[in-house]
Design a protein that fits this description.
Chain lengths: 146, 322
């Protein structure tokens, strides 16, 4: 049995994390982490999007409402966007969203947005491990929370 | 001359230019004035102006809201009676280029205060109201059963207590003299307090509030910024964002996305709060968003027509985002 399969079997946490990754940077970064055989937590479900500017703030909101315990959005570093300006718009929206969901009863620690480029496999691994740790500490999202 | 007389004269003056003027007239009792469409000169005498004229007429402007009910013709010109807070809604709509300045005439009414019926109802049983007179900072209320003197500060709308823009920011004719603005300090008090409580309390509080929601969509219909009409994702099946059920979670999601669609656009006119039949404090959610937008982007919606709403633009180096 491979390490990953073992991991999944031994994994008794029932935490689900949705990660929206931009096709050009962060998805490549996660791919780099994979090809260089860096272990990643199995709680993360990755959704590939063309650009963080494509993220309608309703995506993370809907994910929380449907029972995700954490949402991570990641894209190119500012000034590196494939579409020039997508992540600048995203940065503004997601910053407002972060404080807004906290007000509505979803802790803002459950939500994060980060910038990871395609070469930063190591950084991606560290970031996702930290994020999963953080969500595990918070525990599953409360039922009425969603 | 009294403000109402000047208004009547002005309406008479502009009536030939426009198809009709929207103002306030007497409703079923003195506390509930209703919108009134003046299209003929003889109707002008029915216009009123008092502490209860609260409807935001900016809501009549967005074309998507007019077309389905067939009340309005295309390219007609209308006149509007507009308070300070309503004028901000109009500026917001102008910024979004959903309405055009040459299609309406604004009769700007500087506005001292408006009475919150929900607050008044807590003080006195208003079902049998007979008279309501303001003198100084007190109000004398007379009903069939009792007579009471109430401090005005206790029954004003929150937005009026901290009104920064009592005079219309955009108008063609200003009716009467300008009034003094009040201090904004303390406007976000209830939001600050709510932020301080623990997450569990927040959840149970919203649970309690949204449990009452009957999904009548009155908040959406009364909001001048909500003009999606049949494309509103609360009702579309494709994309199917939200179920039509009355589960608390769906009702909460509905309010969340409605609020977020108004992020950076909401002018705190408080109509959603006023029309809610079950008394959900929707404007508290809206206030949170305006507070965040003010903190992050130093922007107030509907104040300057030339500015771009903050979520429609960006800066390479943000000032307040780390």
């Amino acid at each position: 049995m491979s390490d990953i399969q073992k991991d999944i079997q031994n994994n008794d946490s029932n935490i689900k994390i949705i990660a929206f990754l931009c096709n050009w940077c962060s998805y490549g970064g996660a791919d780099t982490a994979g090809t260089s055989r860096l272990k990643q937590p199995s709680e993360v479900r990755i959704i590939r999007i063309p650009c963080t500017g494509r993220v309608n703030p309703l995506f993370p909101m809907k994910a929380f409402i449907d029972g995700a315990d954490g949402v991570l959005i990641s894209g190119c570093h500012p000034n590196d966007c494939h579409y020039i300006e997508g992540n600048f718009y995203a940065r503004r929206r997601l910053e407002v969203l972060k404080y807004f969901i906290d007000f509505m009863g979803i802790e803002k620690e459950r939500f994060d947005y980060q910038w990871v480029s395609a070469s930063e496999g190591q950084r991606w691994q560290q970031l996702i491990i930290d994020f999963v740790e953080r969500i595990k500490k918070l525990g599953p999202i409360g039922k009425c929370e969603t | 001359m009294d403000r109402l007389d000047i208004l009547k004269e002005k309406v008479k003056e502009i009536l030939p230019e426009v198809d009709f003027v929207i103002g306030y007239s007497k409703g079923f009792d003195i506390l509930h004035p209703s919108p009134y469409f003046v299209s003929e000169e003889r109707q002008i005498r029915n216009l009123i102006w008092d502490e209860f004229c609260i409807n935001n007429f900016a809501n009549y402007l967005p074309p998507p809201k007019r077309v389905p009910n067939g009340l309005f013709k295309q390219d007609e010109k209308i006149g509007l009676v507009v308070k300070g807070c309503d004028s901000r809604s109009i500026i917001q709509l102008l910024q979004e280029e959903i309405i055009f300045r040459d299609t309406f005439i604004i009769l700007g009414m500087p506005c001292e205060m408006k009475i919150d019926l929900k607050k008044l109802r807590e003080k006195i049983d208003i079902d049998y109201i007979q008279s309501f007179n303001v003198s100084g900072d007190k109000a004398e209320v007379k009903t069939l059963l009792e007579k009471k003197t109430i401090n005005l500060d206790e029954i004003l709308y929150d937005k009026c207590l901290y009104c920064k823009y009592p005079n219309p920011l955009i108008y063609d004719y200003l009716i009467g003299d300008k009034v003094n603005p009040r201090s904004r300090e303390g406007f976000y008090k209830d939001v600050d307090e709510f932020e301080m409580i623990s997450n569990e309390e927040k959840i149970s509080c919203w649970e309690k509030e949204f449990d009452r929601c009957i999904r009548c969509y009155a908040c959406r219909e009364a909001c001048p910024n909500c003009y999606c009409q049949y494309q509103c994702i609360a009702q579309t099946r494709r994309p199917h964002w939200i179920s039509q059920s009355t589960e608390t979670i769906d009702k909460k999601f509905f309010q969340m996305f409605r609020a977020f669609h108004n992020a950076g656009r909401c002018t705190d006119c408080g109509e959603c709060d006023r029309v809610c039949p079950v008394g959900i404090p929707i404007s508290k959610i809206m206030k949170k968003l305006t507070k965040e937008v003010l903190r992050l982007f130093n922007y107030e919606a509907g104040v300057d027509e030339k500015l771009i709403p903050p979520l429609m633009t960006y800066k390479r180096e943000e000032d307040n985002i780390g």
